[in-house]
Amino acid sequence: MIGIIGGTGIYEIVEMGKDVETKIIETPYGESPEISIFKLHGKDIAFMPRHAKGHANPPHMINYRANIYAMKKIGVERIIATNAVGSLDLSVKPGDFLIPHDFIDFTKTREFTFYDTKTVHIDITEPYCHDLRNYLIESGEVVPNGVYVCTEGPRFETAAEIAMFKQLGGNVVGMTGIPEAILARELEICYASICMVSNYAASISPTKLTIDEVFEVVEGQKENLVKLISEAITK
Ligand code: HPA
After folding, report:
1. Residue 5's CB: how many other CB atoms inside 10 A?
2. What is the ipTM of this complex?
3. What's the CA-to-centroid distance between 108 and ligand 1, angstroms?
4. C-alpha–C-alpha distance, residues 47 and 89, integer Å
5. Do the Cβ atoms of 27 and 121 come closer than 8 Å?
């Protein structure tokens, strides 16, 4: 089964599916959001809205462990995640899609592992799934590489933080990619992300950042995002 964890703006993919059924999964970490299970291009798909119904949970309050555990429990072997991001490079523009190959973790307060009672050190040298990244890269016009910086949010960044992230090699900045990618690796689920650039990051952008700007770009690119995922699923 292929899992899709949708951030802001891709709930529409469910409407393309056949025989949609919904499930809430119990996990040791609490309940999952409502997952829609359906068939698309003959494949079994499980769509999970990351923020739960009505975008209820902000990035730092998402129950990432319940989300990933629930996906594993229903038999998901591969996850395509979507994440809204700000761009640190003028050449990567609002509306672009970027498939990250690595990340830098600046989150602070999140439950980020399933291994609290056992000493396990997973290898995460290459945190994103090689095969799944290639399917996404072949499926549409995307920026094929980039380093994703994850912040704790929910605030946007200061100018000094963005300057630091750039110096460290970051290309895009978001609030929802971590610990999701780590938890997926811990449960041996192949995971890749489509980062949708919704804005230039603070201070890269000539104007003040607003959440309306983020939603506006996401809204405009929804159809293309669904197309990209739908194409990748056929591979
Ligand atoms: N910063 C952090 N997270 C984001 C941004 C940003 O500029 N845009 C969308 N998510």
Report:
1. 27
2. 0.99
3. 16
4. 31
5. no
Q: Is 125 known to sit in a ligand binding site? A: no
- What are the structure tokens assigned to 4, written together? 């899709």
148 dihedral zone (left: phi>0; alpha: psi -120 to 50; beta): beta
Q: Is 201 in the pocket of ligand 1 (CB under 6 A)?
A: yes
**Hey, which of 5-19, 31-45, 51-65 has the most confident mean pLDDT?**
31-45
How many angstroms is it from 26 CA to the middle of ligand 1?
31
**Buried b / exposed e along 131-159 (16+ C-beta atoms within 10 A):** ebbebbbebbebbeebbbbbbebeebbee
Q: Is 148 annotated as a binding residue?
A: no
Task: Tell me the pLDDT tens digit for each residue of 191-218.
Answer: 999 999 999 999 998 777 788 888 888 8
The pair of three-digit structure tokens given for residue 103, joined into one six-digit string: 């990340």
What is the reported pLDDT for 52?
81
Whether residue 149 has its Cβ less than 6 Å from ligand 1: no
**Read out DSSP for 73-123?**
HTT--EEEEEEEEEESSTTS-TT-EE--SEEEEE--S----S-SSS-----
From ligand 1's centre to the CA of 138, what distance in Å? 26
Residue with tokens 């009672």: 117
What pLDDT is recorded for position 138? 97
Q: What is the pLDDT at residue 8?
A: 62
Q: How far apart are CA 129 and CA 152, in angstroms?
A: 24
